[in-house]
Amino acid sequence: MARFSFFKNWYATEAIPIYVVVGGTFSGAMWYLYRLSMGPTIQWTKDNPQPWNSIKPNQSTKMLTVTHEHEGKWSRDKL
To answer: Which keywords does UniProt give here (predicted)?
Structure first.
């Protein structure tokens, strides 16, 4: 009887939107944390303890700059 009651509440049709919202929120949070972890300010190796010293003066690390034109493109060489 307890098993039937558990499954009745767990698989209720009314609970499906809750699962979708919680799953979507969790997925969005994981995507955002991944996006933050791949930024130029995060250091994954100890080979270069000061990664900001390897950026050239004409090199931009921003995704979008409104008033700045540059020749080079930033890329992550080491992981």
So the answer is: Membrane, Transmembrane, Transmembrane helix
